[in-house]
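@channel sequence for tomorrow's demo:
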Amino acid sequence: MTSFTPHRSGRRAGPDGFLQVLRAEWARFRGARGLVLTMAASVLVTVSLGLLVAGGARSTCVTGTGEGRCPAPLLGPDGTAVRDKYYFVHQPLTGNGTITARVTNMTGQIRLPDIIPGVRNVKEGVVPWAKAGLLVRQSLRQGTPYAAVMLTGGHGVRMQHDFTHDVAGGPHNGPQWLRLTRSGDTVTGYESDDGTTWTVVGTVTLAGLPRTVEIGLFATSPGVLWQAAEAFSQVTATFDRITLRGADGPWRRDDVGVVMESDGTTPHHPGGAVESGGKVIVTGGGDIGPATLDGGLRADLTLVGGAVGLVLVLVAAARSGTAGRRRRPIGAGLPGEPRPAGLPAAKAAVLGAVAFVAGLVASGVVVPVGLALLRANGNPVQPITVGTELRVIAGYAAFTAAAAVLALGLAALVRRAVVAIGLAVALVVVPYLLATAGVMPWLLAVTPAAGFAITQSVPTFAHVDVTPSLIGGYYPLPPWAGLAVTCGYAALAVAAAVAAHRGKGPGQAAGSSGRDAAAAESAGRDGSSG
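structure tokens (generated this afternoon):
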């Protein structure tokens, strides 16, 4: 009787075995000179392109004294860049009080693309976020706290305060009654269809509201969006049944925030008000809200080279995932011995960590240095908190890691580096480039390119229309939701690769090892093979 002792691998199962495979994979990656250089090149490309763009950016504006540097962004109470331009018919209110009015009509003008070059094409119309209603604010100084209840061009009744906060009321279906009450620091907005039955739209607290405030009627209209810019828009609202308790003086009129033409004396698109027969007709243009488009250059502009740098990361990841086709992977064991089950996970862990470090170095240099260059060149820059800047830097690194792991998983599935690279670029980079051009921006919600959302430094506000393009700062998903989409794709790709790996039986592994034995021995002597 012949005894037989099966071969036992020296590699132990469990955490210790996985750590051994992990160390082997790390050693293999360090020895693959081509992969290391490709990752380093991705950092160089991202930083170089970002600093080139930031260093060459120059912003100029036409002001009342002529063309020159653009002013610094106007900041709201919480430090957000805001717009604060409107026409205001108001009175000072000392202590508590209430203002009530009915908005009977809203009309407006908007500028459309010129049909005849040089001839302005201005038509009747009201943009969706045109606003007319009741306003109470600390003072006429721009950027100060305020609260308003209003009728909009296409979003019904709203209650807004301090530029970034918005609460929806009911729909607009005819003349709309509005009411605004002030009690200490508390302001409450109401709406009514008949002036008898009232519904609360919202209640806000304006901390530090002085005893004397300004209260009254306002109208404003943000520009209509076309060709990735804002064109002229104006709204005219008719108010009647106006009652004001707590103040009894003459109405004052102010075109808050109006700018002058280059001659320094002519108002640019001025507003106005007309009182007639108990009615006040107010015309205004501008906006009271966040300045997402014209509040300055954004921090994510410095990562403009990230898409190009990411291509190199995807190339390195795909090559790493198909290295086993050219040589026996470290840890594959002897011919006939199955590859360790933890190998795909170890590959993903090593590659993800390397990609994270590469992304962190690139963003950690280009974002702060790029912002410094933008400011040094006199450009207005959107304010950014330390927390947001850190999120952009670390988030880009995490996105780079997730994209690399996705490319690795694709390479393990298709087993061809060129095919895997093409798929990864098509899924991660191409949708980003299309969205930058304003084409199919919804792809940034359903493809792995969604992770680019983590780099947005200015949030998308629901009550501000923006051009559906990355140039205008538009992302269909919030930062962390976008990154989660990319991570989900990466996890699915790795899980599929692990499942396919486990599906190979010992016989398959033996046959494969036998066919590649000679190539493996030769490749093992070439540490630069990737």
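heads up for whoever presents: The two ends are 48 Å apart (CA to CA).
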